[in-house]
Amino acid sequence: RRPPARRAGQRAAPAIAPCPRYDAAVTSAEPATSAERATSLANLKLERDAILLYDALARLERDPRRAAAFGTIAGNERRHAEIWAGRLREDGVEVPPADARPRLRIRFILLVARLFGTNAVTELVRALEGDEEAAYLDQDNPDVASIVADEREHAEIWRRLRDGEPEPVGTPTA
Prior knowledge:
Oligomer: single chain
């Protein structure tokens, strides 16, 4: 990469000393394979669908405790989506815009929730969370460990909601 041309009377920028450990870490990363990019795109789609699901469940829910729990999970899903979008950008892939319409399974869950309430979809959503965690366990990726931990937290939040415990996981107590 060429340094920018200097204008007359402009001082040269100070030289930056090389940092071998950092430079080796940055330059040793291999470019992502097409399979890894496809996996990252699929993960991004899963997380974006989960955002739509949990945002909608939070809007539908009348119990403030349950709505707050769904909002917490939606926040985690947003962070996960940003991880995958960032990874794609790092790999030079243009991140597609989020679909306004989730996949059929999510639309079905939301239809049932609209008709019968969020309690009626508990097992469907818990199964969906389990499927996501299983998909991540098969991936060898440094970002996956934190995502899997969040997916387990989601299962714990659902357990606490089912058992009627007063505070969902992650909610500060007084």
